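Researcher: Go.
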Amino acid sequence: MNDLWGPLWLSLRIATVATIVAGLVAIPMAMLMSRRRFIGKSLIECILVVPMVLPPTVIGYLIILWLGARGLIGHWLYERFEYSIVFRFEGAALAAAIVALPMFYLPAKAGFASVARELEENARLLGANRWQVFWQVTLPLARRGLNSGLVLAFARALGEFGATMMVFGWTPSRLTLPISVYADYESGDLSHAAWAVGAMLILSFALIAAHNRSASSTQD
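Model: Structure:
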């Protein structure tokens, strides 16, 4: 049981950072995609959503291909700064963020699309500037989609396994909860794996309950 706290804490840290990163991309892109028409919009949306259907191992491979020490961008970073994102916390967070991005983007886009333009126009007529309209009108009205995206992205990042293991590696000091389950299974320690499985089930149910509660309170 004591061995569970390390993977649990690491998983929560990775999921938190990944959700923040995913939100920083998803929210402005969801706002843009729900309000504007432009050339290449369909392609950009495909890029934002494709991690939802790609196998996580493919995402991990692409991260290594681009940002690994021998990658297209990672080679330059390693040569110049002796830095590689592979086997680091930030690499695991990036992998989880990419996988979780569609889970944040799609509900956020639906939330922004549901906001009546007339309310925003009325706020502008009353003297509000663009940022005031966004923070005081658009964002509160879109909160149902944003809250859903936040919870779903965090849950997806928390349970990420394939991309994280490829980028982050697998050692006793680098075990998230999902990787810990796999490591225990490989070593035949199924009783220890049961603790991690139980923790993931509890967290998953708690996140689903929070999501449902947030959705019901928003409707009220």
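Model: The chain is about 75% helix and 0% strand.
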